[in-house]
Amino acid sequence: MTLLSSLSYDPVELKFGTSGRRGEIIHLTPLEIYINVLAEVEYLLSLPKSEGGILVGDDFYLASDLRPSSPDLAIPAVEALRAAGMNPVNCGRIPTPALTYYALAQGKGSLMITGSHIPFNRNGYKLNTSRGELLKHHEGPINACVAKVRQGIYDEAAELSLFTAEGKLKASPPPLPEATTAAAGMYLDRYLDFFAGKSLKGRRILVYQHSAVGRDMLVDLLQRLGAEVVAAGRSDVFVPIDTENIEVSQLAAIQALVDGPYDAVASIDGDSDRPLLLGVDANRKVRFFGGDLLGMVVAEYLHADAVVVPISCNDAIDRGALAGVLMPKTRIGSPYVISGMEDAIAQGKKVVCGWEANGGFLLGSDLPNLRALATRDAFLPLLCALFAAEGGSLGDLLDRLPARFSKAALLKDFPRATSLKILEGLTPETIAEFFGARHGFSSLDRIDKTDGVRMIFSSGDVAHVRPSGNADELRIYAVADTQQRADEIAEAGISPGGILRRLESIMK
Are 109 and 127 in contact, with CB atoms under 8 Å apart? Predict the structure, then answer.
């Protein structure tokens, strides 16, 4: 009897997305994690060092977020690393960019166990080569390697397998290696070195901690840079904050924490690679700043000569000071942004950066006292914005940008197959019917299908429909000349009986 024939359940395979492999916890058995991690590491072993390869016997760094399920996933991941001949080094519970930064400095691979911002009942992991993130050209070969390893493990005799019929490890594995603090220390030093000689003294900042893995590091860093910091909203229950889709209830929860005068509210998502920044006015009312606008502030602060953003970002960038350094817009996802940054560097650009609509900031160039980090980072954009305000308000800083306002919203548990049918069905005729005067739209000016369907109307309104790359969610991105109009477009998209639900009913 083979292992596969002995399994008491039907295994559900992890899918490769733009930020690693993710799935529902009930399907993330030790067997499934082991298969995927072993295969991906074997793929890295097949690559030359110049392309991000690793060597048998190398240290391989791993860390995790604060989801309750993450330690359970770490155990089979470590066993897979050992089976591949690697030396697992536990960096503890730290931000994804902190792990990546440390591993890249050593020229080694890394693995972050995280579900990022996705719902509590899901989790996953993200693996990096010794040179950085996995890119799109890695996807096919990696999936082929996973299929080969899966078949080999499934074909083993059940009695000889490491796994039970329930997909669990038969033998109790040794505990995880003791965690080192070196990665966390190096990550904090990155910002202390870059902002040396500058101070946030006089700034009072509320850090909304919730369940972010970098919550204490952010408080520590801001304090060491001179700010008065109040930590609030700490949660032992995982809170899935999506910095691209801040819901009204989440903003209300943050507003309730503002119990005095503050200059800003700073926060990060679950694995702490996406920033969340809110201004606070004289009446103690919070104001959310979208990550794509935040990226513009950071790029100007760093004097970028090349900027790469995905098609979903706020088009204020096309109208402001950065328009002249804007590279061709990419599909959505850090691998595409990274490829665009590599193209800019190949063209001789010296200060290359990029970001996503969620605010995750990528630096492709080494700057004085600041090494490149071509993966989503939350701390750098938060700090650059706070320093760029130069004693004034964040609102005043952001109001200097072109007056374009954005809003993102989504429908959860929305089957990807249905989303794809909706995209196929969004012809000019369908758009005229569903995105018409009833919802305040003018005539359609053009369609951009770089990623999803982005509809640009003659009034300047933008409605962009795209399924998530790593979850069963359908997103709508709205851009308009006022925040009220952007909010109206997003709400018209996701409301019960709204545009997306009506499209769903006819596209099924």
Answer: yes
Burial class, 436, CB count within 10 angstroms (exposed 0-12 / middle 13-18 / buried 19+) = middle
CB atoms within 10 A of CB 250: 19
- The residue type found at 339 is S
Which residue out of 19, 69, 70, 116 is catalytically annotated?
Answer: 116
Decide if 219 contacts 228 (C-beta within 8 A).
no
Pairing verdict, β 15-17 and 462-467: unpaired
Nearest CA among 240, 259, 260, 258 for reference residue 250:
240
The yes-or-no answer on residue 116 being catalytic is yes
In the β-sheet with 87-90, what is the strand arrangement from edge to edge? 15-17, 20-24, 122-128, 110-113, 59-64, 87-90
Is 465 within 8 Å of 435 (Cβ atoms)? Answer: no
DSSP tag of 470:
S
Range of the domain at 418: 405-507
Evaluate if residue 217 carries a pLDDT over 70: yes
- Give the CATH number of the domain where residue 439 resides: 3.30.310.50
Q: From CA 372, how far away is CA 362, in angstroms rounded?
A: 8
* pLDDT of 17 strictly over 90: no
Indicate whether 387 and 492 sit together in one domain. Answer: no
Q: Tokens for 277?
A: 């920044």
Question: Is residue 439 classed exposed, middle or buried when 0-12, 13-18 and 19+ CB atoms within 10 A define those classes?
Answer: middle
Question: What tens digit of pLDDT does each residue of 73-120 get?
Answer: 999 999 999 999 999 999 999 999 999 999 999 999 999 999 887 778
Task: Share the mean pLDDT of the chain.
Answer: 94
Mean pLDDT of 158-166: 97
